[in-house]
Amino acid sequence: MDQISFFSAEARGPRAGDLAGVLCGHGQVVSFGRTAARLSVELAEGLRARALAMECGRRGVTAEVTSSAEGQPLVRTPFRVDLLPLADDWCPGAGKEVPRRFLLDGPTLRMWVLACGIPTERGYLLPLDPDAPDTHDPLTAALGTIGLPAQRVGPKAGGPALRVTGKRRLATLEELVGRPPAGAEPLWPSPRPLRQAS
């Protein structure tokens, strides 16, 4: 019988704190008068937006799928009191930063994959926020801590992003994030030959 990793998405139930994975990419969180906070992220595909909104719902956080000013799919929560800790941790000052005690695990990594992960022929990309360069080193270290050393790639290779390569590492990534939500299969990491989602 296969043993579920301690860090796997299936090792514990979903919770609102998992939404930090959206902030590992280009997601944003803003607070309103220090009484509530809203999470939002602009996405490349409608299927990604629907899957992400569904996963937010599994965590007790309602999210709507709408469109950004540029016409891209946008997932956005209402202002909520229970999202304030996320805003306090990730945006304590003027910009976004990785919390000092941040620990990446499967459920949080699952939200990162859903928000922006990209399968490629050369591995799997976990995009970083180009507007928050100070988050890149801590997130690289956080991946390494859970057994996923990744290579940093720049814009010419689809970055800024962290690239996970090799069958063993891709299998670990697939185990950590769990099964894909319905419809999100083309976006999911796999140790088998990968093709980029259209």
Descriptive notes:
- Helix content is 29%, strand content 18%.
- It has 6 helices and 8 strands; from the N terminus they run H-E-E-H-E-E-H-H-E-E-H-E-E-H.
- It has a 4-stranded antiparallel β-sheet, covered by helices on one side. Strands 5-6-8-7 form a 4-stranded antiparallel β-sheet.
- Helix 2 packs antiparallel against helix 4 and helix 4 crosses helix 6.
- The longest helix has 13 residues.
Listing every helix as H and every strand as E from the N terminus to the C terminus, the arrangement reads HEEHEEHHEEHEEH
Radius of gyration: 16 Å
Strand content: 15-25%
* Amino- and carboxy-terminal Cα gap: 35 Å
Biggest pleated sheet: 4 strands, antiparallel
Helix run count: 6
Q: Indicate the multimeric state.
A: single chain
Strand order of the largest sheet: 1-2-4-3
Structural class: alpha+beta
Helical residue percent band: 25-40%
Q: What is the 3D shape?
A: globular
Low-confidence parts: 1-9, 194-198
Question: How many β-strand stretches?
Answer: 8
If you average the pLDDT, what whole number results? 88
Outline:
The chain is of the alpha+beta class.
